[in-house]
Amino acid sequence: VLKGIDLTINQGEVVVIIGPSGSGKSTLLRTMNLLEVPTKGHISFEGVDITDRANDIFKMREKMGMVFQQFNLFPNMTVLENITLSPIKTKGMLKADAEQKAYQLLERVGLLDKAAVYPASLSGGQQQRIAIARGLAMDPDVLLFDEPTSALDPEMVGEVLAVMQDLAKSGMTMVIVTHEMGFA
């Protein structure tokens, strides 16, 4: 699907990948963190060839947060548990420290009052902001967004965009895939 791609993204940049459905945008994004493994070529991240099997893929993925189109929150876990799971399990963070960070992130995305609720009780826009907080919980160097607004009702798009704009202003490196020109 992907051929002849040469892409350089600098720290602090916000890159939007635009194209019609089926053009390989999401595949490109998923290839960046090796959710899709390329059959040819190389991907360099922070000077390391992450396609070289000698390198630890999981260590590299810790530096890349991913926000999915359908949120991909665990329905059987509270918002707080969704955000703290990876820092506790993969980084070995103490539960109390992970929760403190999660509360800070929830405040940042405007959902501090939702820590104890389950995803099913949230709107799509709220779920996507929780997914962004979850992506930030690992302190990534880059945040990858796969169609972050396409599953939302039009009135919910603004609240997600506001969070993303705040992240951009703070210097977060972001790669955003979309087919919506107005969003870009």
Automatic annotation (TrEMBL):
CC terms in the record's Gene Ontology section: plasma membrane
Domain ABC transporter: 1-184
Membrane topology recorded in Swiss-Prot or TrEMBL: Peripheral membrane protein
UniProt keyword list: ATP-binding, Cell membrane, Membrane, Nucleotide-binding, Transport
Coiled-coil regions, chain positions: none
MF-aspect GO terms: ATP binding; ATP hydrolysis activity
Compartments, as annotated in UniProt: Cell membrane
PROSITE patterns: ABC_TRANSPORTER_1 (PS00211), ABC_TRANSPORTER_2 (PS50893)
Statement: the UniProt record of this protein carries the keyword Cell wall biogenesis/degradation: no
Protein family per UniProt: Belongs to the ABC transporter superfamily.
Name of the featured protein: Putative amino acid ABC transporter
Gene: atr
